[in-house]
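Figure-free illustration: sequence to structure, shown twice.
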Amino acid sequence: MNSHILLPHGISAQDALLIIDMQNDFMPGGALPVPGGHDLLHAINGLSHLNFRAVVASQDWHPMGHCSFKEQNGPWPAHCIAGTDGAALVGGLDQRRITHIIRKGTATDADSNSAFHDDSGRSTGLTDLLNGLGVTRVFLCGVALDVCVLASARHAVRAGFETFIIQQASAGIRPLSASSLLEESIKLV
């Protein structure tokens, strides 16, 4: 993997890096591993050292019995249960550069693939945080590209941010269509 990632127009004080769900349960050996997830650490750590106004990490932070779990007729095995090792940010992620942590999926009755708000519309506070910091562009990376990274990118566009997904620092379960992302005003870099 190329550790030097070229980002458009450089990075400024109006830009934020959103590191999506780089947690133990999404890594090899975890409850819901994303292929290649662990291989992203070098690229993400390099990105976090750029001159972003904010570096925000999201965490799935589910209560026991969360609606997304198979035991509750949801699509996923139990994962990222609040306070467990599986919910912790993965070792090797340079947390010194993270300025904020957003926890999502905290309500038992609503899933939250997006770092911006859950499926019932409850906000995580990320939009207000970024607006308060004067952020106008967001760059997303992490896992899973086709689930939580994509959902977060879609909500970033709706919240009015110029939105980029950094492909070299993201891993997914299924490939994404670049043309469909452009139709949604999400840029791939």
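We now fold a second protein in the same way, so the two outputs can be compared directly.
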Amino acid sequence: MRNLQKVLKEITELTFEIKKNYPELYQFLEENPLAIPSENNLEINKKVMQDYLESLKLLLAHHKETHSLK
């Protein structure tokens, strides 16, 4: 099982990749509601960060699928 530091490292690397290669997508990352814990779960823990990492991966994959050159 991955530890929190590894998950945070992956988030940082993926965010940097999005910023560098997909600036049109990067502008929307701050608006992603998954980045903010809900009122019921104010603790930022490994699960919250793992969920956020997965949401970033899905966001990037969807962007690549819908904006690929045809």
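Summary for the second example: The two ends are 39 Å apart (CA to CA).
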